[in-house]
């Protein structure tokens, strides 16, 4: 013990060296950060944000504009909503909540590019979180930061967002984590030459083989379940504030607003059932609906089978097609709202096209999902061409509705089909 | 307010900036106000409890000092102890004992309607009540003159770097630092920043990255394999060490920047050679508190072998219960009590033979065996129920595949190796401080830069609370 005490003072004397060493360490980290900024890619997400921002500010608006997050970007085929009758464009931005969508629309409207119908397709989990590192760190202009600061809660999250603006390492820490933990260097070799989403027809062409074979990308469904998307329904005040501002902005410019809640996998729905998530979401939206500020497009797409997802959130080909078919059955009011303006102006949009091909390509899938003779009626469950799906669809159609279908009927029908 | 939050960083920078321009008495006033703000940021309603504890023990110590009659002094001390333990009993243990009583009655077919209080456990209550109680006992024992100025004593109780998770300071160590004018030198700043860097690495990089594995395994209700149990317990061993010693390092580092010196709380605990050694290395401020104020008060080793064993078991039982109102902490305390008793028994029997273990290989074996005992203790500590303890223990005999364990060990090694290496160097050198301070400047600079890069890239920023906050 004596030795320890006597050496305390000499140990303290080493503090001066430590102080200098920490100074050098800080300088070294700053240098590394600057080198990364100079030589490493900027990141697909940041480039994509710039791309969409530039597009909405410089190009005429489509008649139907889809906004939202990564779930909306990859999961909503605009042609399902436009039916090839009016122009449409998907401007959803990954890692985006309502603040980001508001900032995007505010700049777009300021540039005079006003759509006729706005379809908000934010996955509801985005209402419960704010990604400050991308919102303030990259997306917002400096002039927009003070307001975001005021709205943030806690304010230190907004401060973190500002810090990420200055640091490449902080901004791209998820990519570095992927590299260190999974050896995934995708970020550092990414190809950012093709920014735009391929047209729906092209996407459907790519889906064709997957749909025919019934083999879908479920690669990340088995990822460790963090429970992140099973949290109780929550709306951060900041998201609520900016959703209201989106609606006010739309009202001010005479834009009709629609809301689409992208579906969730069954396992997520089941996991969060005790918290009454879906009912709370409906209650939240009904406030806006009752005031006529938005129209919720309600279909049978609250829950899809797990196999229709790449992960706990994002739809795969089967899910995208099924959602497009379900939306096509509900598109009447969207198209009606979109046709409220001069057609010529709408058609002038360069990247927003009237995608008739996609609509035609979707049709056989959608038809296959309906009961014979049901016209544009609601879809029955299956989407793939598998035996079980066909049998199930047949059983549902015979029973009259999915609700009237008993488990026994299904199993008998499936056996008979086989 | 968590150390691992930007809120704290901003708070501390502001406090430090103001502190540096004030004179001594105003510095103390600032620290006291900052400490109340720090605590109130969690829940301002519990400030009343903190202030109440402070006022009671301040007044009790003065009253004890004024009296010479031993019986009167003892009665006043008892008032303080009952008040402090009463706070703990109501806020921490009431529901536990009420529920346990109901369960116990149920064993005999009796139905007792449960009476539970809907109260929140005040953060850090076990730490500050023990710190405050130690003061009155020291005054009673004549080790210390009572503090005359209430604000000084309040600062001793509430000093924010160590308020909610220790180290549980002794008044004989901390109060003189409150009284005296403090000098902050470049040496202290360097050593403080070094501790803060190490603490953040331990908490945000090591502990918080191991937490998901631990949570996933201990969330299971059954069907464990030996690999899972081993992975879960090993990861938890380093998670709790990183979490708690990381907190201590940050507390000691920030204190140094304010000119204070807090006691060391950890000395390479996983290099302990036996149970007695372990408790001189793990949560030193609590184990020494239990020794000085409980074990010795119970009679220590003065009443013969059996009385010593009883006192050891009682001390460790209460030490376990100090951690939380749950049965697994009781089992954990009793387990460590049994280890201490067993080791004492062995030492008495083995006597001279135990010197054979001074060889290098003997030492390594001792460390390995003690680490194994410690790991099983962590299983008891972390388990969510008695049934889980049984399930996990039985699963230790069922190995299926080592692949899972190997993968988790690689993750563990990736996050823990710098801490293990630094601990080993300090253990081997017997240094009073982290071995990092002895390294050449270039090595230190590269290490701190490595810590920072790991912090930026691999650190978890979800603001995970510290495990010991709940105690």
Show the helix and strand layout.
The complex is a heterodimer of chains A (418) and B (471).
Chain A: H1 2-13, H2 15-39, H3 44-58, E1 64-67, H4 70-75, H5 78-82, E2 88-90, H6 98-110, E3 117-120, H7 132-139, H8 145-151, H9 155-166, H10 168-171, H11 173-182, H12 200-213, H13 237-252, E4 256-259, E5 264-265, H14 266-272, H15 277-290, E6 295-296, E7 303-304, H16 317-328, H17 332-338, H18 343-347, H19 356-368, H20 387-399, H21 407-417
Parallel strand pairs in A: 1-2, 1-3, 3-4, 4-6, 5-7
Chain B: H1 6-20, H2 24-43, H3 47-66, H4 70-107, H5 125-141, H6 150-158, H7 171-179, H8 186-218, H9 226-257, H10 275-278, H11 284-295, H12 305-323, H13 327-350, H14 360-382, H15 386-395, H16 402-429, H17 441-458
Helix pairs in contact in B: 1-2, 2-6, 3-4, 3-5, 3-6, 4-5, 6-7, 8-9, 8-16, 8-17, 9-14, 9-16, 11-12, 12-13, 13-14
Main sheet makeup of chain A = 5 strands, parallel
Strand content of chain B: under 5%
Q: Which spans of chain B have pLDDT < 50 for at least 5 consecutive residues? A: none
What's the total count of β strands of chain A?
7
Helix and strand string of chain A, N-terminal first?
Answer: HHHEHHEHEHHHHHHHEEHHEEHHHHHH
The shape of chain B is globular
Largest interface: A-B, 37 and 39 residues
Shape by Cα distribution of chain A: globular
Mean of residue pLDDT of chain B? 89
Describe, in plain words, how this protein is organized in 3D.
The complex is a heterodimer of chains A (418) and B (471). Chain A is mainly alpha-helical and 418 residues long. Chain A folds into 2 domains: 1-38; 40-368, no CATH class. Chain A contains 21 helices and 7 strands. Chain A has helices at 2-13, 15-39, 44-58, 70-75, 78-82, 98-110, 132-139, 145-151, 155-166, 168-171, 173-182, 200-213, 237-252, 266-272, 277-290, 317-328, 332-338, 343-347, 356-368, 387-399, 407-417; strands at 64-67, 88-90, 117-120, 256-259, 264-265, 295-296, 303-304. In chain A, the strands form 2 sheets. Chain A has a 5-stranded parallel β-sheet with strand order 2-1-3-4-6. In chain A, strands 5-7 form a two-stranded parallel ribbon. The N and C termini of chain A lie far apart (81 Å). Mean pLDDT of chain A is 79; it is low at 1-7, 342-350 and 402-418. Chain B is mostly helical and 471 residues long. In chain B, 70% of the residues lie in helices and 0% in strands. Chain B contains 17 helices and no strands. Chain B is globular and about 65 Å long. The two termini of chain B are 16 Å apart. The A-B interface holds A 3-5, 7-8, 11-22, 24-26, 28-29, 32, 154, 156-157, 159-160, 167, 169-170, 173, 176-177, 180, 224, 226 and B 5-7, 10, 185-194, 197, 212, 216, 430-433, 436-438, 441-442, 444-449, 451-453, 456-458, 461.
């Amino acid at each position: 013990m004596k030795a320890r005490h006597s050496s305390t003072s000499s140990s303290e004397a080493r503090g001066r060296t430590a102080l200098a060493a920490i100074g050098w360490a800080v300088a070294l980290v700053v240098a590394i950060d600057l080198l990364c900024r100079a030589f490493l890619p900027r990141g697909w997400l940041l480039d994509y944000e710039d791309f969409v921002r530039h597009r909405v500010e410089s190009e005429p608006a489509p008649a139907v504009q889809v906004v939202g997050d990564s779930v909306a970007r990859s999961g909503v085929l605009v042609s399902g909503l436009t039916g090839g009758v009016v122009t449409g464009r998907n401007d959803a931005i990954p890692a985006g909540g309502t603040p980001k969508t508001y900032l995007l629309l505010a700049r777009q409207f300021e540039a005079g590019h006003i759509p006729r119908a706005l379809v908000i397709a934010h996955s509801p989990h985005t209402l419960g979180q704010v990604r400050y590192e991308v919102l303030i760190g990259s997306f917002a202009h400096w002039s927009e930061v003070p307001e975001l600061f005021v709205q943030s809660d806690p304010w230190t999250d907004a401060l973190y967002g500002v810090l990420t603006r200055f640091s490449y390492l902080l901004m791209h820490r998820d990519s570095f984590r992927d590299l260190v933990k999974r050896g995934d260097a995708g970020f550092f070799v990414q190809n950012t030459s093709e920014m735009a989403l391929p047209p729906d027809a092209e996407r459907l062409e790519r889906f064709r083989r997957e749909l025919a074979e019934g083999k879908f990308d479920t690669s990340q469904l088995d990822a460790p379940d963090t429970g992140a998307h099973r949290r109780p329904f929550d709306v951060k005040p900041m998201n609520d504030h900016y959703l209201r501002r989106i609606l006010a902005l739309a009202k001010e410019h005479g834009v009709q607003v629609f809301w689409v809640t992208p579906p969730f996998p069954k396992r997520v729905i089941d996991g969060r059932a005790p918290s009454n998530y879906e009912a709370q979401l409906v209650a939240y939206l009904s406030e806006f609906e009752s005031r006529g500020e938005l129209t919720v497009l309600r279909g049978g797409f609250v829950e899809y089978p797990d196999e229709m997802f790449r992960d706990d959130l994002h739809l795969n080909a089967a899910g995208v097609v099924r959602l497009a078919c379900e939306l096509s059955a509900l598109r009447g009011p969207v198209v009606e709202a979109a046709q409220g303006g001069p057609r010529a102006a709408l058609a002038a949009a360069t990247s927003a096209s009237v995608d008739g091909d996609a609509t035609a390509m979707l049709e056989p899938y959608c038809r296959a999902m309906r009961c014979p003779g049901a016209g544009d009626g609601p879809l029955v469950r299956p989407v793939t061409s598998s035996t079980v799906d066909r049998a199930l669809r047949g059983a549902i159609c015979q029973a009259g509705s999915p609700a009237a279908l008993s488990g026994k009927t299904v199993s008998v029908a499936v056996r008979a089909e086989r | 307010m968590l150390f691992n939050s930007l809120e704290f960083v901003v708070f501390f920078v502001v406090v430090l900036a103001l502190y540096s321009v004030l004179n001594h008495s105003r510095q103390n006033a600032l620290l006291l106000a900052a400490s109340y703000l720090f605590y109130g940021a969690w829940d301002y309603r519990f400030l009343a409890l903190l202030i109440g504890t402070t006022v009671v023990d301040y007044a009790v110590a003065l009253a004890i000092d004024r009296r010479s009659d031993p019986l009167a002094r003892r009665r006043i001390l008892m008032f303080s102890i009952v008040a402090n333990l009463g706070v703990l009993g109501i806020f921490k243990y009431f529901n536990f004992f009420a529920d346990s009583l109901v369960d116990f009655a149920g064993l005999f077919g009796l139905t007792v309607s449960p009476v539970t209080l809907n109260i929140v456990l005040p953060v850090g209550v076990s730490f500050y009540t023990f710190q405050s109680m130690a003061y009155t006992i020291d005054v009673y024992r004549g080790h210390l003159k009572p503090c005359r100025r209430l604000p000084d004593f309040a600062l001793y109780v509430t000093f924010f770097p160590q308020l909610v998770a220790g180290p549980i300071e002794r008044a004989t160590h901390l109060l003189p630092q409150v009284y005296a004018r403090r000098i902050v030198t470049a040496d202290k700043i360097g050593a403080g920043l070094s501790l803060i860097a190490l603490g953040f690495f331990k908490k945000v990089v090591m502990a918080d990255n191991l937490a998901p594995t631990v949570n996933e395994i201990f969330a299971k209700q059954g069907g464990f394999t030996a690999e899972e149990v081993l992975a879960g317990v090993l990861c938890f061993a380093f998670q709790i060490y990183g979490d708690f010693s990381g907190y201590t390092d940050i507390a000691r580092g920030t204190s140094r920047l304010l000119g204070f010196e807090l006691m060391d709380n950890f000395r390479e605990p996983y290099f302990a050679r036996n149970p007695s050694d372990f408790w001189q290395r793990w949560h030193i401020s609590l184990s020494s508190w239990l020794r000085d104020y409980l074990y010795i008060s119970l009679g220590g080793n003065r009443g013969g072998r059996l009385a010593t064993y009883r006192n050891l078991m009682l001390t460790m039982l209460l030490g376990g219960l100090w951690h939380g109102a749950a049965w697994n902490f009781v089992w954990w305390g009793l387990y460590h009590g049994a280890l201490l008793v067993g080791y004492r028994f062995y030492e008495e029997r083995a006597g001279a033979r135990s010197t054979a273990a001074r060889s290098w290989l003997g030492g390594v074996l001792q460390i390995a065996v003690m680490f194994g005992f410690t790991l099983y203790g962590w299983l008891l500590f972390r388990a969510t129920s008695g049934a889980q303890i049984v399930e996990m223990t039985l699963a230790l005999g069922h190995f299926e595949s080592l692949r899972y364990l190997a993968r988790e060990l690689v993750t563990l090694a990736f996050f823990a190796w710098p801490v293990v290496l630094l601990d080993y160097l300090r253990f081997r050198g017997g240094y009073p401080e982290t071995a990092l301070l002895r390294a050449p400047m270039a090595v230190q600079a590269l290490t701190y830069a490595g810590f920072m890069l790991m912090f930026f890239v691999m650190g978890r920023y979800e603001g995970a609370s510290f495990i010991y906050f709940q105690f």
